[in-house]
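Quick start: read one record
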Amino acid sequence: MQAHIASSPQVDKKSPLVPEFNKEDIEKLKTLLESLEISSSAGSCSMAFAGVGVNFTEVFESSWSPDHITVVGDQVMLTLDNASGCGFQSKNKYMFGKASAQIKLVDGDSAGTVIAFYMSSEGANHDELDFEFLGNVSGEPYLVQTNVYANGTGDREQRHSLWFDPTADFHTYSFFWNHHTIIFSVDDIPIRVFKNTEKKGVAYPKNQGMGVYGSLWNADDWATQGGRVKTNWSHSPFVATFRAFEIDACDLSGEDTVAAGAKCGKLAQCWWDKPAMRELNKSKKRQFKMVQSKHLVYDYCKDTARFTQMPKECLD
């Protein structure tokens, strides 16, 4: 995507030092001022890890099969073979903010495999935000499935195709999460927005800190063409590579649930709840509309065969 460069405002020849601003220029100026306010007010709300130079073992730990995880420099390689897949998790939990990673997916015949990058709390009534990359046979595109769990309830899948080959290079996948909305983005382009609709009686993730996770595993009972295409183990080991992790969020290390709410739950206290972050700006809305029209291949809100009564958040 080409970056949009704003044209300069027209200058009144009679008053060369006082430019005339139209409504669009004023909106841009307001957004700039809000972003400056956000940057200066993050304070103790955030704990940021720069993408380059993160010591993986300081921030994350293996959640299963550590012998299938290899760390080389800033890259973390997850391996799946016919013995096991593997996964990692953050040592701390977070509430609200942003988490992202650059990922290079399994190339070639990846049918039956799933690469997951997600955030999750613990327990039956957990909250969870998912990116799941569904493998496919050689020459067929990957699909990325997103899902949102709130208080243990999920079944909110969307699937998108991608506008690039995710196996050829690294791309950035990110979650943004505040009191008002959850945004899933690919290379800073929003592909999904899940709004807080508690007024309709829909649970929203806002009371549980979530860890950051990654995994690679075999899911050939459902991942590719509904499970019709199985994993071809003659092509193993399958390898997915992560790097450039960034977490800018409310850090809940050592906090209990009550303390977490007190620390992270105040509206407008932290950068992610400032007015400018309550919804997509005009440029992001255009990008989101483009993705929805060209790359959305499944939306649970349109699956009338699956739901006899549509979920409340799907109703206008």
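The domain at 46-314 is CATH 2.60.120.200 (Jelly Rolls).
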